[in-house]
Amino acid sequence: MTINAKNLDFTALNEELRSAGPICRIEGCLGQRFIAAGMKDKSIEIYGVPGNALGAYLGGGGIVVYGNAQDAVGDTMNAGLIVIHGHAGDAAGYAMRGGEIYIKGNAGYRAGIHMKEYREKKPVMVIGGRASSFLGEYQAGGIIIVLGLHDDGKPVVGNFPCTGMHGGKMVLRGEALGVDFPSHTKQRRATDADMSEITPYIERFCGLFGYDTAGLLGDTYTVVTPDSNNPYKQMYVEN
Amino acid sequence: MTGEKIIESMLPMHDRSNGLGGGFAGYGIYPEYKDFYAFHVFYNDNSARAECEKLLGESFEIVKAENIPTRKIPEITDIPLIWRYFAAPRDSVLSRLQLDEKELVVRFVMHVNSKIDGAYVFSSGKNMGTFKAVGFPEDVGRFYRLDEYEAYLWTAHGRYPTNTPGWWGGAHPFSLLDFSVVHNGEISSYDANRRHIEMFGYKCTLRTDTEVIAYIADYLLRRCGLTLEEVASVIAAPFWSTIEKKEPKEAERLSYLRKVFPSLLVTGPFSIVLGFDGGMMALNDRLKLRPMVVAEAGDRVYVASEEAAIRAVEPDAENVYAPMGGEPVIVRVKEGAY
Fold it and tell me: Tell me, what's the ipTM?
């Protein structure tokens, strides 16, 4: 079923989605917030620009955006899949608790802020390009993978990555030279165990966006985790 | 561009505001009066108007005084008297006070806003004007008949006041001379900034934080002669740890500006667009606690809190990107285009 989002506010658009069948296509999307919030049984394609908090509290199913997404993609999502064929705004994967987000392009500030995990619920976010500052701020669980496939010459992550990180794992393709990690984290070159953990996600990324899996998997990866011997203690950012 | 286009771009942003303030600034809108200061003034009543006009007439020659044309629409209520004056400073006054004309304008605006009960000058530049009200931006734009103005630069704002009152003077943009500011966010350093800027004759009377950014812009750009880039390095100064990592010359420049103007560092979330005669500067706070998207379409540049606002009027906009916190985006109109 196709929904023309023109002149629909976010409430009306979500009502149409709820009453539609399991497979929907949204056309002419323009900034409507909270699309598919809390839904779990839909497969949704979006053309246009979805608004903030796309797929908030998503409980399952899938959302594919053929373009850019705005802020807080997958805010507090529990399960399901979100695929962005463009760039994502700030705070992608905000407080994500499960499910997977794949971003072909870049992510804005604070991607993966306060991502967390519990037992089998382990969120994953893969960013194809680069991530801006405060990547994985207060990360408490889950995996954030940044592939650095961008070509604008900017660093793979901006300033202050992993600030307040106390759980989970961040994986950056390459040696992450010049990235200034905080002292409450540890970095290592990815081990075989790390690689077998991230391989399915990289394969899925390549399948979604048409990249060469073998080429990407042949690269070096840097893994960042919290340093439990020197945990994060600071209350506020420095001046 | 007429004001219709910017009103259209505000439509998908409706939910970002709550109807307690909307406003616009247009640059290049008064070509027939471009040599005169255009004062836009709210009055509670005619006695405030008489008092203000007397003061204005003492220092300025008024070439035109009129009500700002509005459209009667049910969405906009509790309307004050809204007047517009085109005026030139009197030479005799300038020479007696030994002031340049812009300083005279600033002193006049500060005097009216702080001393005349029920009168607020909310626009005081040349060949530009601010239009604002309590209401949603799209209604405010229709109320002021912005479709009848043509500008080379428009800015717009929808307000969602959280801890200061929603009133006509509190809507954005805030302007002084040709500077105007629209702001998404709130200023944590407001009182430190206010205390500092009030030492130089500015008076914060509009009961909300953004006003102080307009005065900081005027102080740093006009009075201190800083460049726009330097202003960005003062109000969104990088962290010391970031400065340390810069090239020595750049580190010295940034460190100098932080040390000379420590009280004008603006902390807390902001994304702002500063309009000025001939262009605009967009800037985020250094932590980038508010969104900002830039895009181009032909020879036009767009800046908004959301890409959707840009796509609403330019579906095929290109070079869409989000600047870094503290990274100014400065756009100037081509020479002779206004």
Answer: 0.95
